[in-house]
Amino acid sequence: xxxxxxxxxxxxxxxxxxxxxxxxxxxxxxxxxxxxxxxxxxxxxxxxxxxxxxxxxxxxxxxxxxxxxxxxxxxxxxxxxxxxxxxxxxxxxxxxxxxxxxxxxxxxxxxxxxxxx
Length: 117
Known about the structure:
Layout: E1 5-16, H1 20-23, E2 27-37, H2 52-64, E3 67-68, H3 71-85, E4 88-97, E5 106-113
Parallel strand pairs: 1-3
Antiparallel strand pairs: 1-2, 2-4, 4-5
């Protein structure tokens, strides 16, 4: 049984930031996403797991359609969206933003679990 699936450094561009000037143009973000799928038995069949390609595309599309002030909100809503769209017991979404000149990045992480778990 697979314990988790991890997507490392998914790059996308989104409008996010408190000042309007920061949201005026999409900026580069990096997401790290860890998924805990609900799996009974794999039987080497993709239908029995979570398709990580579909997750990556769904995340990019979801974030493209939204405008956020806070990366905290972006992480929370993305995690909730993934729980609603895929057969997951738990999801972790880290969002990295590159805005401070003296730091590699600023990040927030949202961890959400399916209430039925």
